[in-house]
Specification:
The complex is a heterodimer of chains A (about 900) and B (about 350).
Chain A (H helix, E strand, L loop, with lengths): L1 H9 L10 E10 L10 E4 L2 E5 L5 E8 L1 E8 L6 E8 L4 E8 L11 E4 L12 E5 H6 L5 H5 L5 E2 L2 E2 L7 E5 L2 E3 L19 E7 L13 E7 L7 E8 L11 E13 L2 E12 L16 H4 L9 E14 L3 E15 L13 E16 L8 E18 L20 H6 L16 E2 L12 E2 L6 E19 L3 E19 L14 E5 L2 E13 L2 E13 L12 E14 L2 E12 L21 E2 L7 E13 L4 E21 L2 E27 L2 E15 L3 H4 L4 E2 L6 E2 L6 E3 L6 E10 L18 E9 L3 E2 L16 E2 L3 E14 L2 E10 L21 H14 L4 E2 L16 E2 L1 H16 L11 E9 L1
Parallel strand pairs in A: 1-7, 12-15, 32-35
Antiparallel strand pairs in A: 1-4, 2-3, 2-5, 5-6, 7-8, 9-14, 10-11, 12-13, 14-15, 16-17, 16-48, 17-18, 18-19, 19-20, 20-21, 21-22, 22-25, 23-24, 25-26, 26-27, 26-28, 28-29, 29-30, 30-31, 31-33, 33-34, 34-35, 35-36, 36-39, 36-40, 37-38, 40-41, 41-44, 42-43, 44-45, 45-48, 46-47
Chain B lengths: L3 H20 L23 E3 L7 E6 L5 E7 L7 E7 L7 E3 L9 E10 L5 E9 L7 E7 L8 E5 L2 E3 L3 E3 L1 E7 L4 E12 L8 E13 L6 E6 L5 E5 L4 E5 L3 E6 L6 E5 L10 E8 L2 E10 L2 E10 L2 E4 L5 E2 L1 E8 L5 E8 L5 E7 L3
Antiparallel strand pairs in B: 1-27, 2-3, 3-4, 4-5, 6-7, 7-8, 8-9, 10-11, 12-13, 13-14, 14-15, 16-17, 17-18, 18-19, 20-21, 21-22, 22-23, 22-24, 25-26, 26-27
Classes of the chains: A mainly beta (about 900), B mainly beta (about 350).
């Protein structure tokens, strides 16, 4: 066993080389004598890929992740073959073979094993894997759901980093929304059924990867199989009633198989829609006149739909080349509920995000002799377009499906980026007025008549070329070299209150168009000396915003990022120490004068800074991995990460509402992770991941520091917070715990009812999540002055319990299944944000009184019977008009109370979905 | 493999059918906005008060289909804007409100002086603007807004200008749709004056002609007939005539145009006090006249139907210390919407009067 392990370690080339491939190793022996067989032929998926050496050992590098068929043959012996060998990206899979002489009857393949990733000392990464089996067995419905189960993840934040500080790799190809990753989505969605395996790397990842300082999400997609197969599934919550029916419909169609010769294809369509796309578990309204008192869910004008279609064609070219063409198109469009338009919901805005990804991948596989070389040449085009603004009322065709693309008013103007034409009042936009459709009638708080008239549009496109080469140097050293260049194109446009001409109170439209370039190159070596494994690499990152930004030539920014890891095995535990420096270019949105759907935090008049440089991090991690028993393992990681050059908004002059982006802040993340795992055996598996962490940084944010006024009790002087003091980062979750448990009953389990065993083969999975509260800043009642340190307060802790039950069934000989997926089983009301002035979701009585008083004084006029604002029940003197403070003020107060109801400060409620699936 | 395909397809179809069956169920609806509107008066009756505005509600005009009445009301804003509203002819909640809403509207007095709704929702309206508190408008025009959407409004006739054949055109009074693209209105000149230096400004309209307006064009007017001194126009499609009001007279004109015919002259009435006729209306072949007079220093007023040139009071319409004003009738003549004010100078509200048949 030890010899096999050492051999595998010595020949490990692929783990970091190509994250979409793995390595297959093994030893072939004579079953009757246990002597190694020399020159035995190893065929992978029917192709000769290796022959054994004198010790009977073989190595096949660059095996695409997924399942494969392995066959071993040698004259005089019975050929051995086994299908379903799973190759994981970056891992070594071991298949040992005992060949029987022709006259002897023996099992085909005697041993199949995976080189233990827990103990693999040449795997310096802290990788948490998500297999297609996990995606199927656990109550998750997207890759994002699955990643959120991993240690150190808070939403899209990894190890305390800001959203967008991670990189995303699809089959080894980098995909990133460089424009507004911190506030926007990637733009493409990877359907679950397309994923072979995904992993999250949060520590010193290979020098091969840039554009990230917090983490790396690596997704491997499946290739088509040798015979046609597929899956069709439909999910819904229609059988539920009342508030449990949120209008979900989801249809998934997936098929793969050969299309000609050895050419295979995978195709998928994933359509999903929900009438309450962004459901909240807010309490029902107290006032019986409020429609939310009777129907707290779903919210109107809150529907959304996602359409994703993708496909992949794999073309083997001879014995050493494989070409792959991958395409994916996603559209996500959502009608956005806006409390201001609660009673005229169709006037609230909508947004649409379209993403397109086309990649070509030519892979060179190693031959059976000579220096093993794996080469990956990838070329891809990624396009993401975002638009937000006034939309027509949705025309639902089926559930929440509209069947057509959302039309945003003013989109043509936005695409033209004509800021001169945009100065005029734009046709088609009405004037928003106070709604008369409220139960309270009075003109205040709630809007109607027309939309706000905002238009926000941006487009990011990138043509990326990427070359990665892995070279095996002898049996103890591997070398990785490569580089990438990405030509990007950015276009933005923003206009507010389009029904008014730009002028004194309405800023002119902002637009930009420029072409940045991102480059990268790396060299990395991995070697084993005695019991020590070394990984050393250096990466060059370059970022040039392009000469067409800001009408002047800007200098390119460059950075060198070394990475180093040392690993060894100590008393059965693998210990890895790694240190690395990571750099990522800033969000391109920070370079231009626009705010991209993020106007509440720092104001609308933010000045972009074309001279922004890299955001950087240096992380040191010490990890120990140990296998407690055959099926259980424990991983402990401790890390410290210094952050430098974080982009922040810095006051511009004396106006705190006006700011400029700078690489101004520095910070530190320190923490530890403990991951206990019991592999899925004997029908059940479990995993517990716990994190203790502290993430802090300086705060140069104009919105916060400039309004944090403190008076020195001795001198009476006004004090500002110390410039370099650290405060918690927004995603500073100090304590987190995720526990998963899944199991499957025997097909003969349970009593037989009417000839069927209802519990037979039933599988169940539970996910429990706990997280301590995230920080937030307290303000005064006006909301524009801090009353405590930035992020000095904490939300309550959150926890949820999710369950999934799945029961396979046979329908006419076809494998099918039924499943019930319940999220937040206990319907816990988790606070995910809060009011900054009260520290809880509710406005204070003083706030409500102040708002009501202001609204009443602004419109104290009487409301006659014929007015749509007249409410007979409020006409206490019965004179046919609402007049005077006695009749009007209670209405304004009720409206203020309604308007300040907390909604999106709560997480989702219990979500239930029924599913039926068929494999064909 | 091939043999199993048909069966497999059949199974797939069955499963798809089952999925479709599940999908056929409806989803729960989101909460909906409570409907607080009504289409009945606050206190129904033969005579019912329709509007309760503290400020004047004036110039009612029933739409050609008889479903709604358009009138003007004061918004109560500091800039003293006058808006246009549509109300179900049976009363209740306004179904439409049109007020000035431009960015700089608060710097001006904007007023809508009259409107006509077409069956497809197109709104024709006259609109004037002036400096706040200035008595004389500095701009005015007749507009048409498709679907009643003021953001897509289009100017049809410039007002406050000299029009050949008509003279000074200050106002188009009581517009009514008489064809798909044709409006008919009384073209008038406004005489703005005040009786004394501290008296409020008053506007007196002096009729010039009944004109047909091609709303597809700009300033495309044609004179149907001259109507000197008239200041109100009613259209009775049933009898094919216009009814016009002068200070003491009621006259008619064929809808195709032509000469005026005097049908009632209050000055010729004998016996009793002098009676003004603040309003005329027409519908169902009948002509309605509101009257007001002082009887021993007590203001009185009533609503009458002209029968062979003689006014006959509609029962229950005699008022004391209150006065009826301008009126409009539904096309079938069964209902009247009439201004009513307390005294001669009090604020005016609209009332519904059910006409006995």
């Amino acid at each position: 066993m030890i010899r096999r392990l050492l051999c595998a370690i010595l020949v490990t080339v692929a783990p970091l080389a190509a994250q979409s491939t793995g390595t297959l190793v093994g030893r072939v022996v004579d079953a009757t004598t246990d002597r190694p067989i020399r020159r035995a032929e190893i065929r992978l998926d029917g192709r000769l890929r290796a022959v054994t050496d004198t010790g009977g050992e073989y190595v096949i590098r660059g095996v695409p992740s997924g399942t494969h068929r392995v066959a071993v043959s040698w004259p005089g012996f019975r050929a051995a073959e086994r299908d379903g060998i799973r190759i994981r990206p970056g891992e070594v899979t071991r298949v040992d073979v005992r060949l029987a002489p022709v006259a002897v009857q023996l099992a085909d393949l005697d041993a199949v094993g995976v080189l233990d990733p827990i103990l693999d000392p040449l795997s310096p990464q802290t990788a948490q894997r998500i297999t297609s089996e996990d995606l199927r067995r656990l109550p998750v419905s997207s890759l994002e759901d699955a990643i959120a189960l991993q240690a150190g993840v808070v939403g899209e934040s990894y190890r305390g980093g800001r959203a967008g500080q991670q990189a995303f790799l699809l089959d080894g190809f980098g995909v990133k929304n460089q424009l507004d990753a911190s506030t926007g989505s990637v733009g493409i969605r990877i359907p679950q059924d397309l994923i072979a395996e995904a992993s999250l790397v949060t520590n010193g990842f290979s020098a091969r990867y840039g554009q990230a300082i917090s983490g790396l999400v690596n997704v491997g997609t499946r290739d088509g199989g040798e015979r046609w197969r597929g899956r069709m599934a439909y999910e819904t919550d229609r059988p539920m009633s009342g508030t449990a029916d949120l209008g979900l419909d989801r249809l998934v169609l997936q098929a793969d198989g050969p299309i000609a010769g050895r050419i295979t294809a995978v195709g998928i369509i994933d359509l999903s829609a929900r009438l309450d796309f962004d459901p909240v578990n807010a309490p029902a309204a107290d006032n019986p006149r409020d429609p939310r008192s009777a129907t707290p869910r779903p919210l109107p004008h809150n529907s959304g739909e996602t359409w994703t279609a993708g496909g992949k064609i794999t073309v083997p070219m001879g014995e050493r080349f494989i070409a792959r063409v991958f395409g994916l198109q996603s559209r996500e469009q959502q009608y956005l509920y806006d409390q201001r338009y609660k009673y005229d919901p169709t006037l609230a805005p909508g947004r649409r995000t379209d993403g397109t990804l086309l990649t070509g991948h030519l892979q060179l596989l190693p031959g059976t002799g000579g220096t093993p070389i794996i080469g990956d040449l990838r070329v891809g085009y990624f396009d993401r377009e975002f638009v937000r603004g006034t939309v027509d009322a949705p025309d639902y065709r089926f559930g929440a499906f509209t069947g057509s693309g959302m039309t945003i008013q003013g989109e043509a103007l936005a695409r033209s980026r004509d800021t001169v034409a945009a100065r005029a009042a734009q046709p088609g936009f009405g004037v928003p007025t106070f709604s008369s459709a409220t139960p309270w009638g009075v003109p205040g708080f709630f809007l109607g008549g027309a939309s706000q008239g905002d238009i926000a549009w941006n487009r990011f496109a990138e043509l990326r070329s990427q070359l990665d080469v892995s070279i095996g140097l002898g049996t103890s050293t591997d070398l990785f070299v490569g580089g990438m260049v990405a030509s990007q194109e950015v276009e933005t446009f923003q206009r507010i209150a389009a029904w008014r001409p730009a002028g004194e109170s309405v800023p002119g439209a902002t637009a930009s168009g420029f072409s940045p370039t991102i480059t990268g190159a790396y060299v990395e070596a991995q070697a084993r000396v005695s019991d020590l494994g070394f990984t050393a690499g250096v990466r060059y990152d370059g970022f040039d915003p392009g000469g067409d930004l800001d009408n002047r030539t800007l200098e390119a920014r460059r950075t060198i990022n070394p990475r180093l890891a040392v690993s060894t095995v100590l008393k059965g535990a693998t210990v890895v120490a790694s240190i690395g420096r990571f750099s990522q270019p800033p969000d391109l949105q920070f370079l231009v004068d626009a705010a991209f759907d993020d106007t509440t935090r720092t104001g609308r008049f933010r000045q972009g800074n074309p001279n922004l440089g890299f955001e950087q991090a240096t992380q040191f991690e010490l990890s120990a991995r140990v296998r407690l028993r055959e099926a259980t393992s424990l991983r402990v990681n401790v890390y410290t990460k210094t952050l430098d050059g974080l982009v922040s908004t810095v006051p511009l002059g004396v106006n705190p509402d006006s700011s400029r982006f700078l690489n101004a802040d520095v910070g530190n993340v320190i923490g530890g992770e403990v991951i206990f795992e019991r592999e899925r055996r004997d029908g059940w598996g479990a995993r517990i991941a716990g994190v203790i962490q502290r993430a802090e940084a300086t705060v140069s944010n104009a919105f916060e520091l400039q309004r944090l006024i403190r008076i020195d009790p001795n001198t009476g002087d006004t004090l500002a917070a110390p410039a370099r003091a650290n405060f918690p980062l927004d995603f500073d979750r100090r304590l987190a715990l995720v526990a998963t448990l899944d199991g499957e009953l025997n097909p003969t389990a349970g009593p037989r009812l009417l000839g069927v065993r209802p519990l037979g083969a039933l599988s169940a999975a539970a996910v429990f999540r706990f997280g301590s509260g995230l920080p937030y800043s307290r303000t005064d009642i006006t909301g524009d002055s801090l009353v405590a340190e930035p992020n000095g307060s904490r939300l309550p802790a959150q926890w949820t319990l999710d369950l999934l039950f799945r029961r396979p069934i046979q329908i006419g000989g076809m494998a099918a299944g039924l499943y019930l997926d319940v999220r937040n089983v206990t319907n816990r009301r988790n606070e995910i944000s809060t009011r900054r002035d009260t520290g809880n979701p509710f406005a204070s009585e003083a706030t409500i009184t102040r708002l009501a008083e202001q609204a009443y004084l602004a419109n104290p006029q009487a409301i006659p019977f014929e007015s749509p604002r007249y409410r007979g029940w409020a006409d206490t003197n019965g004179d046919g008009r609402l007049s005077g403070r006695g009749e009007l003020y209670p209405l304004y107060e009720a409206a203020a109370r309604d308007f300040t109801q907390p909604l999106f400060v709560y997480g989702p409620p219990r979500l239930i979905r029924f599913g039926v699936e068929v494999a064909f | 493999m091939l043999r199993s395909c048909p069966r497999r397809h059949a199974r797939l179809a069955a499963i798809a059918l089952a999925m479709t069956a599940v999908a056929a169920c409806d989803h729960s609806d989101a909460f909906t906005t409570p409907d607080t509107r009504s289409d009945t008066p606050r206190a129904p009756g033969t005579i019912a008060q329709l509007t309760f505005n503290l400020r004047p509600d004036l110039a009612p005009i029933v739409t050609r289909d008889g479903a709604a009445v358009l009138y003007t009301f004061e918004s109560g804003e500091a800039d003293r804007d006058i808006c246009l509203a549509a109300l179900p002819v049976t009363g209740g909640t306004r179904t439409g409100e049109w007020c000035a809403a431009e960015l700089d509207e608060a710097t001006r007095a904007d007023w809508f002086a009259g409107g006509a709704l077409r069956a497809d929702g197109a709104l024709a309206y006259t609109r004037f603007g002036s400096l706040v508190f200035a008595p004389i408008p500095s701009s005015g025009a007749l507009y048409v807004a498709p679907d009643g959407d003021l953001t897509r409004t289009r100017k049809v006739v410039d007002l406050l200008r000299l029009v050949p054949g008509i003279g000074i055109l200050d106002q188009l009074v009581d517009p009514v749709w008489t064809g798909p693209e044709t409006l008919t209105a009384l073209a008038a000149t406004a005489n703005i004056a005040r009786a004394c230096n501290i008296c409020p400004w008053d506007t007196t309209l002096i009729g010039r002609a009944v004109v047909a307006i091609n709303t597809a064009g700009l300033n495309d007017l044609s004179v149907l007939g001259l109507a000197p001194e008239a200041d109100q126009l009613a259209h009775d499609a049933g009898s094919g005539r216009f009814v016009l009001r002068r200070e003491q007279q009621v006259l008619t004109m064929p809808t195709g145009g032509g000469a005026l015919t005097l049908v009632y002259d209050a000055a010729l009435e004998t016996g009793g006090p002098f009676r003004e006729i603040p309003g005329v209306a027409a519908g169902g072949g009948r002509i309605f006249v509101t009257r007001r007079w002082f009887d021993a220093d007590t203001l009185r007023s009533d609503i009458t139907i002209l029968v062979n040139g003689t006014p006959e009071r509609i029962p229950g319409t005699l008022l004391e210390r209150s006065a009826w004003g301008r009126a409009t009738a539904t096309p079938d003549g069964r209902r009247l919407i009439v201004e009513r004010s307390e005294g001669l100078t009090g604020s005016s509200d609209l009332y519904l009067v059910e006409v006995p048949q």
